[in-house]
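tool_call: predict_structure(chain=1)
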Amino acid sequence: MTRRSLAALLVVATAPVLPSAWAAELDEVVRRGELVWAADQEGGGPHVFPDPAEPTRLSGFEVDLAALIAGELGVTPRFQQGQWDRLPLLLGRSADCVINGFELTPERRRDYGCSRPYFAYALQLVGRRGAAPAALADLADPGPRGPWRVGVLTGSAAEQVLRARTDLQVDVIGYDGTIDSLEQLRGGVLDVVVMDDCIFTFYADRFPDLRAVDRPFAGGSYTVLTAPDTPRLAAAIDVAIGTLIADGRLEALYDRWHLAGRQQVLMLRDAAEIPAAPQRGTWDLIRHTAPLLLRSAGMTLLLSCASFPLAIAIGLLVAIGRLHGPGWLRPALAAYVEVLRGTPLMLQLYAIFFLLPKVGLALPALVAAITGLALNYSAYESEIYRAGLRAVPVGQFEAALSLGLTKWQALRHVLVPQAVRIVMPPVTSDFIALFKDTSVCSAITVIELTKRYSVLALSTGRIVELAVVTALLYLVMSWPLAILSRWFERRLERPAGAPA
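tool_result:
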């Protein structure tokens, strides 16, 4: 009997203990002849990453593991890209399973189907050579600049462990990619980074100026996630992993990627089961998460209220310059507007936060976020104010000049006040839109309301309840502005001389 036949027999043997109504989920994978597995190639090695020699082809330990598991099921693997901290949301929609270094935790055990462990990891503290700290224990005291700035992968076990360590003087900053945090560490923005030891081992040669600090700590294991209503598929994946361990192929795969094959197999064979976490009640969930969501809503307000006045001021100056400035300045201002309107806000934030440090200008994440939002929205505000200035009858400007006012006095005292009155409704609408666009700032480590919801929803599994709370917070913040916008519209529609 072949290994594949034995695996199939074991899967069939488990069928009587599972409801027959669920049988279709494994049958569907076999029928279409492919296992769709989700991962985030941005996360990098050794998990999943584009092959440097051939970028159109994926490489990595988990790429090979997915192929082996699919082979045991008698199908071919098909990769599905997704953002790492949102990969579980793809289960049951566009992916059959998630294989991307997801740590086995009580919450994931509760909310998803979790396979037997396929890799054992530990957390590694990474620092710059010749710089503090010298050990993990050093984080118990403040660093040279106050709390240690520690970079982690958003939603990872490293983030959960550090946020739970109340004995450490740390400011935990989440990143969407491991390379981003290492780059920020090398540039001096971060003091240390905490990541899975296998990840730093993989990239150690790429960052020779960084070093492993102290020994690894707080270990765990990786699991394959499946939807909770696909137990037969989960059982088949379990059998496949067991077969790969028993026949030595998984050990050979570890050795191929320099992941200490024999040591891994010894640990996985004796891996203990993790009990499911208890489910919180709805009100208990809201009581525990509301403070975090409220603080993140405060960050959303701060970003909006700090960036939008700057956007208005810059936009108004750009509009005036394009209409009444010197001839040599107008093309430059037009180019400014088109570049900012023609490129994504996220790309602009990346350029400010990640590229400027390479030329010696490292901005704090909050300053970079406010700057990026202000510059991006200034382009749109300039077009609104340019339309408002054009809407003022030209006779107003000519009359002001005839009365002896200078050009700039006429603009300041005559044209701009009337233009501001005209454009208030669309400007107010833009302010409401800015509230939602602050969510993009999470790409540069600023945790605002949407990002906090995403992290809490995935860590607790309570997506709907937290979505309702988050939506209500956004509504509370934007509803007064919507009322103000309608009031301005009614004021403009009122005939001149009509009573207020």
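agent: The domain at 3-118+223-269 is CATH 3.40.190.10 (D-Maltodextrin-Binding Protein; domain 2). Proceeding to next step.
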